[in-house]
Amino acid sequence: MNRRTAAIIGGGVIGGGWAARFVLSGWNVAVHDPGAHAKQDVLGALERARRSYPAIYDSMLPPEGRLEFITSIREAVVDASWIQESVPERLDQKRAVFETIQKHSAPGAIIASSTSGFRPTDLQNCALRPDEIIVAHPFNPVYLLPLVEVVQSDVNSPEFVNSAMSVLESIGMSALKVRTEIDAHIGDRLLEAVWREALWLVRDNIATTGEIDDVIRMGFGLRWAQMGLFETYRIAGGRQGMEHFMEQFAPCLELPWSRLTDVPELDGQLARKIARQSDEQSGHRTIAELEEIRDTNLVAILRGLKAQNWGAGKFLRKCEVGMVAVKGASSISCPMRTVERVVPPDWADFNGHMNEARYLELFSFATDVFLEAVGCNQAYIETGGSYFTLETSIRHLNETFPGARVFVDTWCLYGEGKKLHIFHSLLNEAGDALATGEHLLIHVDLLQRMSSEPTPQVAAAIETAAHAHQGAILPDWAVPKLSFNRTEAST
Amino acid sequence: MNRRTAAIIGGGVIGGGWAARFVLSGWNVAVHDPGAHAKQDVLGALERARRSYPAIYDSMLPPEGRLEFITSIREAVVDASWIQESVPERLDQKRAVFETIQKHSAPGAIIASSTSGFRPTDLQNCALRPDEIIVAHPFNPVYLLPLVEVVQSDVNSPEFVNSAMSVLESIGMSALKVRTEIDAHIGDRLLEAVWREALWLVRDNIATTGEIDDVIRMGFGLRWAQMGLFETYRIAGGRQGMEHFMEQFAPCLELPWSRLTDVPELDGQLARKIARQSDEQSGHRTIAELEEIRDTNLVAILRGLKAQNWGAGKFLRKCEVGMVAVKGASSISCPMRTVERVVPPDWADFNGHMNEARYLELFSFATDVFLEAVGCNQAYIETGGSYFTLETSIRHLNETFPGARVFVDTWCLYGEGKKLHIFHSLLNEAGDALATGEHLLIHVDLLQRMSSEPTPQVAAAIETAAHAHQGAILPDWAVPKLSFNRTEAST
């Protein structure tokens, strides 16, 4: 059994998403799926994930793992420490798969089912080593949505479940331990409730699929992406609080505000009606186009929440703590590598390339990394000192496109007292220069909002950096244009 | 009856949100609510809306309307062309309010109820002019979420309903005409379904309120904010399509994946349990803090979707078509005012002020407005011509903070052939200079990705602009630093 080796049994939409997430997290992955389209689907998922998953982080993912397609379950699972089952939702089929897996898997390997409905007890029944089977239920697209529900039964040891949680967290997932096993766990119960009600609305000609989608994405979907249900209602309750809100809405439970006390019959007629309405709504786009749009939207939403340090965005920041921002950025080399990242898909503008404001976003981030290396970090800023930019010069040398892996190299051209002059080069993987960014900064007292001397520690670190960079030969396309002689500190 | 005069009857969370949206859309608003806290609540909503609502647009809202608090319904409604009722959800109370309103309102005035549950027929019953009453059901926060459900009964004329839809669209709302009246319309049926299921999950100790919220916001809430339910599932169906997806999941409807076939008893014990869990989850923040966080998150999500021209973001862009980007920006004045906007709350960085990359975002937007004025618009870009930036210089003169109303004035310093040199000043409302941005641009052939001559029309318009700006005296803090003599076009 090898650490960071996963077997993916079943390569559909969910299995493909798992494979992509593991590979991009540096795991070697063996996929087993006898289906004719499985290889193509998994490679498609990996391609989409490469475009979007690294883009939600501002730190670098580890080097990709190896992806293989294996014709026998035995070979796929024999070395794996994590075995993810994502075969169709039929209990007999899943049990048969577990039987084959456990004939060949190493004892102690974690076997996780992607089932949306079955309880662990159902799955473990008849198994060779039932205590090594749990539920790890993800949400599509698995490579972007953080949530995974971990469901256990009484036969799983707490240590086993905790080690499974750790693995999931190490691949960027927000693992929720479901304490009590029930059919459909938690998420799919909520989804199923909406789904049933939505089916009634379509069946009764109250709304079309497109209208229902608009109700969600123009309305409460926007709330739910960041706060969910209860925190949203807590706010609606206002100063009178949650108990008041509950009392106010309790009578509605007695009202016929739902047809859910009955189950709609999903006959061919209703299925065709929904398929027809869905075609009208979205049929002008292929599934591949919709996937690309969805993923870019998710990147934009996740990055937006990340900037606010909230919800899924707060979780992503937490993940980055364990990641390397830039190799070796903590030491002051010359030049210092301050950014290594993939250009997010939502950074393109109408000219098809990275928008000019994003160049400054990258350079600004690079400046922050440099400042952190010289001791001007979050803790320092909280004591009331920071650096403000006085002047910036940006030169564009080549175009940059979404999906490109880019790097920033940083030189400290001058650093004395409260003055700091730094120079950035943006490069692509081939080492071509894409742009340069140059900044004059001044140290400020955040309380007075006026220029001030940095602490002796920070001043010394900056002087050391400036000294190390002194006389460094810049590449010939890197031409500094700014100087403190020409600029008066005006802050 | 005055155009653009609204009466808000009931000034709670929903009424306050309506008042804020109308005022910020340039309507004069009279609020009637005898409650002790109503005035404070409505002013609080307006304050929050001022901070967030203008921030979702890149164009200017009209000047604010006047907000008044009126002690009698008669005086509040007598001049109003739109009367929004948001009193508590009790049918007798609502009917009494409609009776008083219609004694004094002008015939033809639109009376809209915010009811989440009642049908128009229920509300119209007993009314003096039932055909002037409809449902316009919004979602909290009313000043940010675009959705409003418009529900009619048989007594409302199509013209009346259409004119109500137009008014709602004119205040930035995405009005969905609900064709058939049912209890709770569409949105609240879906919400009620989730709510009932969530109550069971809490009651049965399966999950806490915090866990349920995390399931939503780490999982499907992120999908729903942009695509809703059916389009999301269409993708999950993959190449086999929507009908296959339906068939695959049909059996689940027969499974006990929901407790919704039964209704939980919302007794005091369950209400207290939920209130206690909600306190643990969110009680360390006041409602005002949560409102501010929610609104900033919504601004970030909406702006993210807007950049992708998708869902609620696509709708916001459509709203802007009818708005004035900048007063008089279509004509080439000297300087030309190219930006008038409020700094969005999500543009702040850890120093508490507008992040430096946002300065370039503003200047980049200002450049686009200038280019549009000289004929380099979307249609032109689609023919394969555009301008790329070669070099940028930014100087920071003063700090800028979220919520500030800022302006950009633009000079065309040079424009000949494919070369363009423009200079921007960022100002605050007092006219203080905050920063300057200067850009050298070159015309390109988007297909060849090489520099090229603009069309004669665009070249002539730019030369006219450069000529008009020639010899213009820049303010003394505006010091151009760039020149084409020092830069070779390298694209």
What labels describe this entry?
homodimer; 491 residues; alpha/beta; Rossmann fold; N-(1-d-carboxylethyl)-l-norvaline Dehydrogenase, domain 2; Thiol Ester Dehydrase, Chain A; 3 domains; 20% strand
Integer count of domains of chain A: 3
Mean pLDDT of chain A: 89
CATH class of the largest domain in chain A: Alpha Beta
Shape of chain A: globular
Strand order of the largest sheet of chain A: 3-2-1-4-5-6-7-8
Sequence stretches where pLDDT stays below 50 over 5 or more residues of chain A: none
Rg over alpha carbons of chain A: 27 Å
Termini gap of chain A? 61 Å
What oligomeric state best describes the polypeptide chains here?
Answer: homodimer
Question: What string gives the helices and strands of chain A in order?
Answer: EHEHEHEHEHEEHEHHHHHHHEHHEEEEEH
Instruction: Please summarize the sheet with the most strands of chain A.
Output: 8 strands, mixed
CATH architecture of the largest domain in chain A: 3-Layer(aba) Sandwich
Helix/strand/pairing category of chain A: alpha/beta
- The CATH homologous superfamily of the largest domain in chain A corresponds to NAD(P)-binding Rossmann-like Domain
Task: Please explain how this structure is put together.
With 491 residues, chain A is of the alpha/beta class. Chain A has helices at residues 13-24, 38-52, 73-77, 91-104, 120-124, 158-170, 187-203, 209-227, 230-237, 241-249, 268-282, 287-307, 311-321, 356-373, 378-382, 456-469; strands spanning 2-9, 28-32, 67-69, 80-85, 110-113, 133-138, 147-151, 174-178, 336-342, 385-396, 405-416, 419-428, 433-445, 450-451. Chain A has 3 domains: 2-185, 3-Layer(aba) Sandwich (Rossmann fold); 188-284, N-(1-d-carboxylethyl)-l-norvaline Dehydrogenase, domain 2, CATH 1.10.1040.10; 336-486, Hotdog Thioesterase (Thiol Ester Dehydrase, Chain A, Roll). In chain A, 41% of the residues lie in helices and 20% in strands. An 8-stranded mixed sheet of chain A has the order 3-2-1-4-5-6-7-8, with helices on both faces. In chain A, strands 9, 10, 11, 12, 13 and 14 form a 6-stranded antiparallel sheet that branches. Chains A and B meet through strand 8, helix 7, helix 8, helix 9 and helix 10 of A and strand 8, helix 7, helix 8, helix 9 and helix 10 of B.
